[in-house]
């Protein structure tokens, strides 16, 4: 749901490696598994073990007498005496019933290795802080090197648990050890959650009444993190609670198990496990919060930039201004999508392609596209699990097959006169689906589809692009019914793609000046982008080389009103680029295409107002 109260996020530092070190869990320290291990009272009476696990093969049975000698805490009924004698135990019984000897008997290999890793990582992080503080003109390469080293140690330490549980692909699998590590982590997290709820009910860890943090409640806990809601508190009070709570939890666990205050969310959404977002404060002194998301579509690679931007801005608007402001924001975004005012780069999707699919099926749309590209160009190989970029375009008719609507981004730019973005598909299948998963939660319970049904949907009737293909869509021959200067609704003039309303035609001087200024502005922007492209490709680029395809051979015609004559006249002055850029990751590729279309519209408007209406196609 959506929480407006501060939420304290606490995280155990390297939980699994710390538990291995704290309880001496290792292959070499495992001494077997108890038959009866449900309660400590049963262990006092029935102490035998089963299975020969680990390097310890005692001649005697592990009776209650033997266990009492190894576990001093078992012989005391008092909880306080048990805790005092816990350090004197010569072995540790994991929650799963597996016995591990203590460090006084044998220091395990895994604890030694992990201890060295964590100690070295702490030294590297401390060195980086000291360098930043004391060294002037420090090279960023040194900090990057230290950061890379500490991250490498962190990753290796955290995946050590995976070595113990990898039964299929691993070589050091030991389910007893893996289960013990997981169960110890689970019990540690549950104790921390119970303590937080105790504080929220007005009781401290020692059973005394303390109403300082009344109302605190754990709303989410997973693996090594806790989310604690603090009703009616400020973010500074939440930080104060988090610091005291982390100190209390750390003191109740053996070293080096440590709970650390990570951040505080002021306004957050908990969607499902490992999927949440909020406005984050990293410290008490931070003035403005930052948006952070985990597992949502705003950071996922399988979503287009349109979904990421709309969802992120909608959530920020929700946290800052409320649900009504979100509705107004979405109405504006949906209108922009239908009007075609967003760049093509926002609609690019990516998907993995496999070499073959089960049952001989065609697979998803990216697989169909990869097969079509391979048939057109046998030299183009799409590797197994390679990510392929594609866009979904609109097709005639109400019903359509998605695999018939998929093109590469470069194919769409090259055939801009024949295709347009499938706006409704992107909105309903991607944008609205992601919004519904967030806004449909308590307390709002919004139905995004109802909002979308009430939203105005302006449609762009034409592209300002020369028609080069006989297979162009019929809408390419429709005249424009929006004024190119003031964007007001007006009467279409035949099949002209540019038109001026009556009020703009009356004030012809101001309209011509406005059209001329727009042309100059677009040309300046285009030449600036062309300079960057020239440095990158090493070839001459200018605004005239933007989005120019190979000219088709056409016979000249004497009819100056025909579209063929207009295309021939326009193409006479176009300069062909020496190198055609095919980089779909560069923003300049789509910016050039957009500037080219704006240039055609501005030139057509200027010619219409000045009387040279040959460009009004």
From TrEMBL:
GO molecular function, one term: nucleotide binding
Cellular component GO terms, alphabetical: nucleus; zeta DNA polymerase complex
Domain of life: Eukaryota
The keyword Transferase appears for this protein: yes
InterPro entries, per the entry: DNA-dir_DNA_pol_B, DNA-dir_DNA_pol_B_CS, DNA-dir_DNA_pol_B_multi_dom, DNA/RNA_pol_sf, DNA_pol_B_thumb, DNA_pol_palm_dom_sf, PolZ_Rev3
All copies of domain DNA-directed DNA polymerase family B multifunctional, residue ranges: 1-438
Statement: the UniProt record of this protein carries the keyword Nucleotidyltransferase: yes
Entries under Gene3D superfamilies matching the protein: DNA polymerase family B, C-terminal domain, Helix hairpin bin, Palm domain of DNA polymerase
Enzyme class: transferase
Pfam annotation, one family: DNA_pol_B
Keywords of this entry: DNA-directed DNA polymerase, Nucleotidyltransferase, Transferase
EC number annotated for this UniProt entry: 2.7.7.7
Family: Belongs to the DNA polymerase type-B family.
PANTHER family listed in its UniProt record: DNA POLYMERASE ZETA CATALYTIC SUBUNIT
Protein name listed in UniProt: DNA-directed DNA polymerase
Annotated source species: Pseudo-nitzschia delicatissima
């Amino acid at each position: 749901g959506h929480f407006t109260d501060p939420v304290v996020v606490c995280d155990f530092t390297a939980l699994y490696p710390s538990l291995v070190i704290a309880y001496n869990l290792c292959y070499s320290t495992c001494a077997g598994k108890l038959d009866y291990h449900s309660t400590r009272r049963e262990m006092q009476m029935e102490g035998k073990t089963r299975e020969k696990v680990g390097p310890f093969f005692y001649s005697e049975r592990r009776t209650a007498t033997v266990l009492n000698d190894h576990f001093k805490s078992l012989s005391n009924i008092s909880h306080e005496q048990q805790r005092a004698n816990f350090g004197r135990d010569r072995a540790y019984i994991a929650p799963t019933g597996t016995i591990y000897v203590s460090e006084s008997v044998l220091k395990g290999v895994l604890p030694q290795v992990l201890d060295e890793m964590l100690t070295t990582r702490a030294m590297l992080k401390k060195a980086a802080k000291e360098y930043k503080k004391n060294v002037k003109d420090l090279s960023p390469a040194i900090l990057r090197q230290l950061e890379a080293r500490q991250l490498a140690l962190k990753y290796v330490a955290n995946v050590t648990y995976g070595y113990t549980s990898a039964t299929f692909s691993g070589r050091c699998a030991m389910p007893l050890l893996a289960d013990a590590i997981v169960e110890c982590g689970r019990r540690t997290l549950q104790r921390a959650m119970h303590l937080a709820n105790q504080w929220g009910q007005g009781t401290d860890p020692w059973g005394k009444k303390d109403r300082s943090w009344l109302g605190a409640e754990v709303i989410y806990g997973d693996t090594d993190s806790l989310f604690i809601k603090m009703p009616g508190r400020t973010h500074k009070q939440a930080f104060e609670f988090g610091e005291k709570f982390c100190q209390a939890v750390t003191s109740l666990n053996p070293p080096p198990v440590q709970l650390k205050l990570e951040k505080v969310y002021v306004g957050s959404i908990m969607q499902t496990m490992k999927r949440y977002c909020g406005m984050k404060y990293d410290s008490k002194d931070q003035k403005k919060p930052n948006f952070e998301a985990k597992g949502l579509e705003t950071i996922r690679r399988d979503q287009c930039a349109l979904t990421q931007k709309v969802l992120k801005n909608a959530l920020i608007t929700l946290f800052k201004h409320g649900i009504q402001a979100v509705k107004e924001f979405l109405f504006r975004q949906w209108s922009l999508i239908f009007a075609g005012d967003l760049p093509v780069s926002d609609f690019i999707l990516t998907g993995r392609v496999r070499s073959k699919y089960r049952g001989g099926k065609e697979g998803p749309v990216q697989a169909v596209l990869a097969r079509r590209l391979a048939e057109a160009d046998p030299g183009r190989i799409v590797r197994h699990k390679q990510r392929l970029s594609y866009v979904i375009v609109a097709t005639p008719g109400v019903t359509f097959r998605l695999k018939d609507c998929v093109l590469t981004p470069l194919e769409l730019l090259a055939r801009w006169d024949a295709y347009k973005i499938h706006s409704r598909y992107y909105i309903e299948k991607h944008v609205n689906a992601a919004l519904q998963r967030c806004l449909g939660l308590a307390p709002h319970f919004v139905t995004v589809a109802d909002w979308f049904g009430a939203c105005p949907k302006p449609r762009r009737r034409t592209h300002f692009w020369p028609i080069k293909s006989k297979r162009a869509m019929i809408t390419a021959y429709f005249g424009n019914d929006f004024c190119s200067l003031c964007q007001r609704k007006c009467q279409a003039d035949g099949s002209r793609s540019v038109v001026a309303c009556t009020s703009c035609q009356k004030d012809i001087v101001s309209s011509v000046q406005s059209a001329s200024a727009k042309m100059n502005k677009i040309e300046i922007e285009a030449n600036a982008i062309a300079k960057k492209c020239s440095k990158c490709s090493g070839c001459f680029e200018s605004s005239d080389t933007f989005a120019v395809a190979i000219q088709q051979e056409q016979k000249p015609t004497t009819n100056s009103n025909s579209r063929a004559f207009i295309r021939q006249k326009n193409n006479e002055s176009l300069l062909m680029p020496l190198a055609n850029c095919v980089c779909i990751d560069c923003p300049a590729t789509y910016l050039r295409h957009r500037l080219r279309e704006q240039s055609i519209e501005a030139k057509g408007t200027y010619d219409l107002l000045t009387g040279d209406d040959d460009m009004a196609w």
